[in-house]
Structure to design on (329 residues):
């Protein structure tokens, strides 16, 4: 594994929310063995929340039961690396991919010849570009920080002018909270850092470590395999567009990529089997989630329409939206 970051998991570009395993089964009913995949060491869990509240532009709150963990994302990423290393992987930090040609990845530490190359290089994936695969078409800027203070154990999502086309969040931890927002840049000209400062001051919270990232919001890319190249995570558009969460999808599909590559190297299947399997496991919920985001786009430009839509959907409808179910039965 190579990563251009000097230290894996730093800076944190994430809300650090991971749904509980039960919630993940409810979102992705076709999946199995999630207990094994998400065996999360308690040292990387920074808090637990049992509720989620969605707040409309008119300040009306809709509360649902939703159990989740607030991770220490840096520690979580390092924990994953340790698991990979224990299974024989090697990681070189501070190394960038430059290009790929004839099965050789040219990097800042020289060429790497690989039987299979996995592009886990995020929404602007150079691997995808080098493989002539399409990249996520729509990416929302999202900024996050660590907020100080004590917070009720309830995840909060604020919709409306605070983050047009997206939402602002408070994800409580045992100490402090992850606070941030993501929005549609075409409709909101404010700089993400200014929007964050405005939001944190409106809730009276001091913050540190702001960090900007991008969230793919256009659903899975058309094809995630080309030749001996496989895309996973944000590079493959594996993010739920109705809530911006990508850790569960990256890990569920990522494990499948690992399995297929191992079977492929043993001569038992083509790499394209990966595409078939992730579609079967997470394709349906991602499709529903994308439909919800597109419907929400109709309401987002008007605070009145957005408030009215949330009122019409009610707690049950909003619960379905968050859980990537079809909005209307
Ligand atoms: C602000 C924000 C908040 C979010 N909040 C949540 C949340 O609360 N819950 C959730 O489930 N999801 C959240 N997400 C999404 C989630 O973080 C990602 O979907 C998930 O981490 C999977 O990302 P990834 O590993 O595929 O890509 P990334 O996290 O983008 O990682 C890509 C890696 O590739 C490396 N890289 C890129 N290009 C090169 C190159 N040329 N050479 C070498 N290395 C390279 C980068 O350094 C990076 O380490 C959030 C995203 C953002 C931006």
């Amino acid at each position: 594994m190579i990563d251009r970051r000097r230290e894996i998991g730093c800076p944190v570009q994430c809300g650090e929310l991971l749904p509980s395993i039960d919630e993940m089964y409810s979102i992705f009913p076709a999946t199995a063995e999630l207990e094994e995949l998400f065996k999360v060491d308690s040292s990387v869990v920074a808090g637990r929340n049992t509720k989620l509240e969605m707040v409309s532009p008119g300040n009306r709150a809709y509360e649902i039961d939703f159990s989740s963990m607030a991770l220490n994302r840096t520690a979580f990423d390092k924990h994953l690396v340790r698991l990979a290393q224990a299974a024989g992987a090697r990681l070189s930090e501070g190394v960038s991919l430059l290009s790929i040609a004839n099965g050789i990845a040219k990097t800042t530490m020289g060429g790497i010849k690989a039987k299979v190359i996995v592009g886990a290089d995020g929404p602007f994936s150079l691997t995808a570009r080098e493989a002539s695969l399409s990249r996520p078409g729509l990416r929302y800027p999202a900024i996050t920080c660590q907020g100080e203070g004590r917070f009720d154990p309830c995840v909060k999502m604020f919709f409306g002018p605070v983050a047009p086309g997206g939402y602002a969040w408070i994800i409580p931890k045992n100490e402090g909270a992850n606070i941030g927002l993501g929005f549609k840049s075409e409709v909101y000209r404010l700089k993400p850092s200014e929007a964050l400062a405005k939001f944190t001051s409106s809730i009276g919270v001091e913050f540190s470590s702001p960090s900007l990232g991008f969230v793919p919001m256009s659903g899975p890319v058309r094809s995630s395999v080309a030749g001996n190249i496989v895309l996973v995570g944000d590079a493959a558009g594996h993010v739920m567009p109705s809530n911006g969460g990508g850790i569960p999808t990256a890990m569920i599909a990522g494990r499948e990529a690992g399995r297929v590559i191992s079977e492929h190297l043993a001569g038992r299947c083509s790499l394209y089997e990966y595409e078939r399997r992730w579609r079967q496991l997470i394709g349906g919920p991602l499709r529903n989630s994308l439909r919800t985001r597109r419907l929400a786009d109709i309401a987002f430009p008007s605070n009145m329409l957005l408030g009215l839509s949330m009122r019409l959907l009610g707690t049950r409808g909003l619960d379905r939206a968050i859980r990537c179910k079809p909005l209307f039965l």
Summary: The chain has one domain: 2-322.
